[in-house]
Protein: Diguanylate cyclase (GGDEF)-like protein
Organism: Actinoplanes auranticolor
Amino acid sequence: MTTSEERQVERLRPTPMLITAVAVLVVSIGVFAANFATQRSPVVWGWMPAMLGTAIAGWACWRTAFAPGLDLVTRRVWRSLAVVCVLIVLGLTGDARFTVLNPGRLDQQHDIPTSICYALAMLVLLWALLRLPMAKRESRDRIMVRFLLDAATISITVGIFAWYFVLQVANAWEADGSAAVPVIMLMSLGLVGSLAFVKVALSGFGGVDRIALRLLAAAAAVGAVGGGLFPLLFDLHPGLSGSQMFVPATLLFVAFAADRQRRAAGVPQPERRRRPFSVVPYLAVAATDALLLTVSSQAGSAVLTVAMAAVLLTALVVLRQVNALSENGRLLGRVDANLVELNGYQRRLTHRATHDALTDLANRSLFEQRTRAALAETEAGAADTLSLALIDLDDFKAINDRLGHAVGDALLVVVAQRLREAVREDDVVARLGGDEFGLLLRGLRLAEATEVLDRIAESLTRPVHALGYDLLVKASIGLAEVWPEASPQELLRRADLAMYAAKERGKGRHAVYDARLEQDQAADAQLGAELRQALDNGDFTLVYQPIVSLPDGEWTSLETLIRWKHAERGFIGPDVFIPIAERTGLIVPLGDWILRTALRQAAEWQDVFGSGAPGEIGVNVSARQLREPGFAADVRAALADSGFDPEKLVVEVTETAVFDGGVALDTLQSLVTLGVKVALDDFGTGHSSLGLLRTCPADTLKVDKSFVDGIGGRSEEAVIATAMIQITNGLHLQAIAEGVETAEQAETLYRLGYRFAQGYHFSRPLSPQQVTEHLEAARVLTV
Ligand code: C2E
Ligand code: CA
Ligand code: CA
């Protein structure tokens, strides 16, 4: 059974059962009317419709008790009602038998078993009604007080009516010894009716359908009025009973109620608008007032006048009270509405405070909160493992700077979505800021957690479509696993460390935290401090690796590469310390030293060897240097100081450095204005976009070693190497194949169209001394 809010209780449908119940009532009225003056039909006929109507109602209640979608309490109510019906059928059978056996029977006269049946029926009914759940809005005590007050009000009213009518018509029964029976019946009917009524007025309804309950209350009212008052109003001849007509009438309402409940089963009840006051006492007051007026009218005009004044006064007091109560109700209603609105605001505020506005992922504060909670769980032994991953998009800044923030944002949204899809429903995914995401994986072993990371990497291989751009993104991911006594901050720090390790190993990778990373980091920090020292001490040297022409292998230019001769650790490669120098900013003074030293050296070779000197000198410049505001001016100054021809200086920059756009590109442009040439280094490994070749003023592409390595086979790299030479030719750029290690590679490259190469096959990087020697030897040769 669905419980969607849109579902409505289907309209009342005239089922065969309901039609039969109505027909039974009509027949009973017919029989009653026919026999009203004198008994025309056999007396037992009068009881048949009542029995049939009750049986139908009983059957309807029983069926409803087993309808799907009802809660236990509601089932219990309907089961009890079915039992009540069975007891009434038994009572009616007893009545019919008694009437047939005692032709002079007066209405409301029963034998003992019949009375027991009716009494039991009432007890069961009372019990069922009293077990209905009360409204939960107020405290139990207050509800109880109200219930008792209302019940007392009704009981007094019913009591006074009963007393009055009994006084009026008591003579009718005086001849008979059983005068007490109808009075007790009347009182108990009144009591049941009033309790039912009050209970319905106060009931929280629970699963019992509201309309069904109202129909039941109507049944109670019809039963109480009909069964109790009717015999007092009409002096019926023996054999005829008001019950013959009022029982089917009462039970018709019960049948309708049961039918309604069955159709409403499983349909959520709309929130009820509560009346701010109970109508029960007012109805009681009105009824008693009516009685008072009736009685006083017989007692003379003085009493009647006073009574009328009293009635009028009560009416005015009631009006005043109702007025105040409804005003209160209105105010309360407004407060309620305001509260609902406030709650909504509060919910939205909390959501906003804990979620990222762009991606709607959890934000850093919620992430930390969840991490803390998950850690507490693992500590308490509720979960055994926990791992935290930090995901950082590679080169996101470049995309943002180059294509604008709107594209960057769109990219982040897609990435967030892919992250969500790559993990389980209850894993926490958060955006921690910028292009950094966090992932909390519970209950996964290391192998399973890294599988998730692979899945994420895999999901990011699909190009991201962002505002018309198809972007390729990669992410560096660091993973840290929980350990005893882990704190959220420490877990995050470890994941962060692992993420930096992943970035250092190359983009688009993941790394898992282990203690060695700490040592590496400590060593890094140590190196960072020592770099400065090394620069002051003159521990750096430059080596030069020739770039040659194909196929002859003649030197055409030199690339400057830095070396660090560490006092204890021997030679440290630039792959190790350049990233540190970049992070610490030391690359700026270091780069300046490299440039000036290389230019001085090149100028010297130029002086000594003239045209025999290498045509150009390449200097690697890092992204950080290009972003340094005065960089172009520094180069100009260095060129001026060395007296070296700007046109023979080649600045080697990586694609990624210029993909950043902005300042870096402006700097390159200024350098080009000076006459300096630009080479795109490691081409093919970064953002390789042909668009870049249009905006970046490059003269040369240095095709990365990875493509050269694959050149012999049929691999993708070979295809790319082939495509790249075609592109460079098409764009009138020079291509240099990097990292050529074998003669075969050199030959293949030549065949593909490459005319320049660099690599160990031709020469390793050489000291200035070695370069000088080579140049001298060459001069000797040419002379
Ligand atoms: P890069 O600019 O791509 O330099 C080429 C690197 O490949 C050099 O490593 C070179 O020794 C190596 N190499 C050349 N031919 C071969 C070969 O046939 N096989 C192999 N396996 N390797 C070959 P190195 O000197 O260790 O430099 C590594 C990277 O460090 C450079 O890559 C560059 O990105 C950076 N770097 C080096 N010197 C400087 C510098 O003065 N300034 C800056 N900013 N970065 C530098
Ligand atoms: Ca280079
Ligand atoms: Ca390179």
About this structure: Residues 13 and 372 are 57 Å apart (CA to CA). The longest strand covers residues 555-566.
